[in-house]
Design goal:
71% of the residues lie in helices and 0% in strands. It is an all-alpha fold and 470 residues long. The longest helix has 35 residues, at 82-116. It is a multi-pass membrane protein. Pfam families: AA_permease_2 (PF13520). Keywords: Cell membrane, Membrane, Transmembrane, Transmembrane helix, Transport.
């Protein structure tokens, strides 16, 4: 009988996967617009005190569920049982709905840069209409397969990373060469002001570090195991350095959520005497292609994963039925119908696209706190009540694990509420969009699971409520 040795992933491959899953230059711009240079130290702290420990938490769940595919549903069920596993998996899909509302307007903006060389400014209502049409096309295309998008997205992601590194090197060189930055780079400017508004924006930084769970599942395949994950701190360093240099050529107050990434490259081109229109179009093409590929991928993939992972019977057979491409078409179109009001409601309280983007990015950030928060609560229960379960890896001692995750839960809870109730926001938007959206979506999930549970026998209900691994 022959034996095979499982291959391992090198540290460079780990960093490459992490870049692909986590890093985005847009996150630097978004946070720079909101809190300026103070985002630089916060990116580094978020990586050190959130991204790395959360990777290790996920790694421990992977170790506990080593005989499964180690999806979110399996992780949470192993600690809290079926109901909370379903709620957590549901929130991952539900967060994706808000993600579309922030991605679609950016694609439209980058399309104008790619084809016109500048951003054509639409009204919030026109932006919402165009976003809806774009999402309808994306849903249709992704439902019928988009196999060619993989290589294209991989190429554009590599080009965007190359652009980012080029910007850091050239803007850093310009500073060394004596350029006066558009906004002064000082310790005072980088010092955070810890108030309610700042706590709300912290969720944007946590959202920027999202994707940890998709990387940490490879803990058993990486040379050096869990210790290698500490090295992904380079992501935080790259975010931090990029944040420090964001306003070398362009002041913070003129940056836009939609096309800010192009604006900083345009400023760099102007400084070095390069063609601004060519730079705008090149960065616009790269950004547009990468984001369009991301849209098509995220339109189908989360729906497919969510509806294939949860128990049969929670949703109807027609809803979860797959086409020949393996996509639940009806669920994908239901997703489209849900995103439409999420796209249009904020336009009622937005005078400009900048206001619209601020609202929907804020809500996306708030919603994105829920899935990792549920995973952290499951991990807390694991270390409190189920620490005897056999697994190859643990994040320190029982006390260490409980302390770390308790601090994270506290930070995430405060950040979630600060982002859900931001200062200066329209009160009706907060009630109907921020609060209403979360209550309606989570309430629906709770109701659907209750209906599913009622269809089970008494013994099945008891079994479903228990942790999957005991």
């Amino acid at each position: 009988m022959s034996t095979s040795t499982r291959g391992t992933i090198g540290k460079f491959a780990l960093l490459s996967m992490t870049f692909a899953a986590v890093y985005s230059f847009n996150n630097i711009i978004n946070n720079n617009i909101e809190i300026g240079l103070s985002s630089a130290p916060m990116f580094f702290l978020a990586t050190l005190f959130y991204f790395v420990p959360f990777c290790l938490i996920v790694a421990e769940f992977v170790s506990l569920n080593k005989n499964s595919e180690a999806g979110v549903y399996a992780w949470v069920k192993s600690s809290l049982g079926g109901r909370w596993a379903f709620i957590t998996a549901y929130t991952y899909w539900f967060v994706n709905l808000f993600f579309f509302t922030s991605l679609l307007p950016r694609i439209i903006a980058y399309a104008s840069y790619a084809f016109l060389g500048f951003e054509y400014i639409f009204t919030p209502l026109t932006t919402a209409v165009l976003s809806t049409l774009l999402f309808a096309v994306a849903t249709h295309v992704s439902n019928n397969g988009a196999k060619l998008l993989g290589p294209i997205t991989s190429l554009t992601s590599s080009l965007m990373l190359l652009l980012t590194l080029s910007y850091i090197l050239l803007s850093g060189g310009a500073l060394i060469g004596g350029i006066e930055p558009a906004d002064p780079i000082t310790i005072e400017a980088m010092t955070p002001t810890f108030n309610w508004a700042f706590l709300g924006v912290i969720t944007w930084i946590f959202m920027a570090a999202g994707g940890a769970e998709s990387v940490a599942v490879y803990v058993n395949d990486i040379k050096g195991g869990h210790k290698s994950f500490v090295k992904v701190i380079i992501i935080g360093a790259l975010y931090s350095v990029g944040s420090i240099l964001a306003n070398v050529f362009v002041p913070r107050e003129v940056l836009k959520f939609t096309g800010g990434s192009v604006q900083v490259f345009e400023g760099m081109a102007r400084h070095f005497g390069l063609s601004e229109i060519i730079m705008n179009r090149f960065v616009g093409i790269v950004s547009f292609t990468a984001m369009l590929g991301s849209l098509l991928m995220w339109t189908a993939t989360p729906v497919k994963i969510f509806f294939s992972e949860i128990p049969k019977g929670i949703f109807g057979e027609k809803t979860v039925a797959l086409n020949k491409e393996g996509v639940p078409v009806r669920a994908a179109w239901i997703q489209f119908l849900i995103v439409i009001p999420l796209m249009f409601i904020p336009t009622l309280a937005s005078d400009t696209v900048q206001d619209l983007m601020s609202t929907i990015i804020n809500m996306t950030a708030a919603a994105s706190m829920l899935p990792p928060l549920f995973i952290m609560i499951a991990y807390l229960n694991l270390r409190l009540k189920l620490d005897h379960l056999e697994r190859d890896f643990r994040m320190g001692s029982r006390l260490t694990g409980i302390t770390i995750v308790s601090i994270l839960i506290g930070i995430f809870t405060v950040g979630f509420f600060a982002s859900t109730f931001p200062t200066g926001a329209d009160i009706m938007t907060i009630i109907f969009y921020n609060v209403g959206g979360i209550v309606i979506f989570l309430g629906y999930a709770w109701w659907k699971y209750n209906k599913y549970e009622q269809s089970l026998s008494k013994e099945e209900r008891i079994e479903e409520s228990k942790p999957a691994i005991q």
